[in-house]
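Hi D.,

Good news: the full-assembly prediction came through. Inputs first.
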Amino acid sequence: MLVVQKYGGSSVATLERIRHCAARCLATAAQGHRLVVVVSAMAGETNRLIALANALVQPGDAPQASRGPYVAPAKRTPEHERELDQLVATGEGQSAALLAMAIQDAGGRALSLVGAQLGLLTDRSHGRARILGIDAARMQRELDDGAIVVCAGFQGTDDRGDVTTLGRGGSDTSAVALAAALRADVCEILTDVDGVYTTDPRVVPTARKIDRLSFEEMLELAGQGAKVLQIRSVELAMRHGVCLHVRTSFDDRPGTMIVPEEPQMESVQVSGVALERNEGKITLTGVPDVPGVVATIFRIMAELGIVVDMIIQNTGAGGRTDVTFTVPEAELDRAAAALAGQTMGGEVPSLSTDREICKISIVGLGMRTHAGVAAKAFALLAAESINVQMVSTSEIKISVVVHERYGELALRVLHDGFGLGVAP
Amino acid sequence: MLVVQKYGGSSVATLERIRHCAARCLATAAQGHRLVVVVSAMAGETNRLIALANALVQPGDAPQASRGPYVAPAKRTPEHERELDQLVATGEGQSAALLAMAIQDAGGRALSLVGAQLGLLTDRSHGRARILGIDAARMQRELDDGAIVVCAGFQGTDDRGDVTTLGRGGSDTSAVALAAALRADVCEILTDVDGVYTTDPRVVPTARKIDRLSFEEMLELAGQGAKVLQIRSVELAMRHGVCLHVRTSFDDRPGTMIVPEEPQMESVQVSGVALERNEGKITLTGVPDVPGVVATIFRIMAELGIVVDMIIQNTGAGGRTDVTFTVPEAELDRAAAALAGQTMGGEVPSLSTDREICKISIVGLGMRTHAGVAAKAFALLAAESINVQMVSTSEIKISVVVHERYGELALRVLHDGFGLGVAP
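Then the structure:
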């Protein structure tokens, strides 16, 4: 088999853990598998480099540690973003070289590939580059030569040879893209949890590890608050039919396989439930119900780069409508400020916000064929007197917004009510 | 003019110093010059990375900080050396990106180039790569585009695209090689001293900064213990006729220009004197004076990779000869162990070592035409009752070995005796 293994930052955080990863790589190779490894930077290194860059250009300001908007907007020139990518990509280069050395030291053959050596061609969007193609010739040659190939994750190069980074969760994306290009049999995501759970085990003690899940279900769960995998890497895996295996790097137990849909999967009504706490709700009341007005609201949000999640529109009496939608909680104030006082259809609707909400999503392929999942969900919530504020549904998902004080209760009620806590 | 400026690790050791370098780069550009900058890693970073690598492969051992033999010989496989190069080269990549950002932040245009982006092609000798050629197309394009090009020093790539490093002082070598390829008007080496001195000012208080020096003199001084410039970068500059300017990065005063020989240079008899403390002496007594025997000694040294500096052979009575030579003090025991008990010409000569020696070298183009420099030197030393143990001469250099307790005295006597302490 050809196996791609991805180790996250916590798995390579110390030299001792790097040695542990090396042993695991060699154990995989000893089973006769060919192995490509993708590594993140040692935990903390990326943030250290970003803090250096921020302190450099904004002396005196507190360094922002979160990747995303690296620095204040005024500094985010394309030239600055290019340098930031050149800078932060060194973090993965270091962990890749160290892991390759550790494998060598344990008696294996290994080499690290970084930047242009990877053959991972992207567009020029620094900090959030899209993968355009992969030239796997070098990698293939080294594999044929018997080496374990250790790739720096999170990075590629553009058509000029400049280093680009893939954005948050980029190492997962690197791993899946390489697995697709090499036609790997499996892409293992090694992490500090042992798989994908029916829900968050910290909230629901009866949560159970899922053995097998379809891409579609994983996409919905990832999009609804399950943090194990970035949605982008799941999309990429689905598009290329790359089987993912999410498992712990601390022992050999199998984790969760994420695979193309299989016929028997629909026999399970619901696969998992997820809780998303970080949303806020905006309600515009008395919006004139004329064409184009609601579109204006969402054009304004798009211009601010704010992602709107759930939307509900109630057409009321007198040619007026109420519009309610949710946005990330961190963007709530900015979104409200942009809409407040806006004239729509000749009038200024009244605006209210609510950050004391949370969203619970029920995901399962079985919903397609099993009627009554929604009805059962509402019944379960009603039995606990939990009021549902908003509802949205897709083919394999139902999401409900409730007051945040009921979030954990709702999650437990739905999880156990759909029988997720018992082994199937 | 096209100017290449090289900033050492101490000049980019902190964010504040990086901002200072950025200001200096912009001042140079504001004078209408096109500018290529070469940077070392932030002081301490290279050693930090090497220590990480050593601790990884030799857990429990004290990390060796000195670059050179990175790790214990058993670990120095070609594969390990490759990874070490991939690892340590990230240090210069980080400082290059940070300096480019600092220039941008101060209002300039800049971009960093690392690894394959540099177009600096080397052979595959990791840790001590030789430069084979430079493809300056990208650099030229960026210069034409008005940018200050910030290059990661110390590194290149081989024909496979693998990162190589140039060995100790490699950033100086990078700077000179780029200056040669770009036909730069001058290559400025910005450092924490303000030029090349007639001798070590810490030992001889009357030492004076030299304004202008020939390549040949600088080569001899560098080879004899003056630490300002690595001999390899001076050789490269001489071969390509690249004018070097060694100056401080802390202010704007001119430093020392190192240039092709000029006619008036020979009017100065002696340009500088240097003290080398880190040599040791081996004497083999009673070596049979038959052809090939002495060659055996130096073949053994060559096989161990030990560089022999001064050699003296006295043919004595009875077909026997004494051979005395110096090696780096750190290699003295290894050299002696390899020779001890060796049969030479059918006999085992007796061996003695002496580490309490030092070497003083007098360098000057004027020696070629001014007879009597050697005679004057010996008279100056004799007047202080300093015994000369070994002598070796080249066209523009005289070196003498004396007991190490007289080293500093000898240096002062020769320096002031040749009038170096007074402005010419």
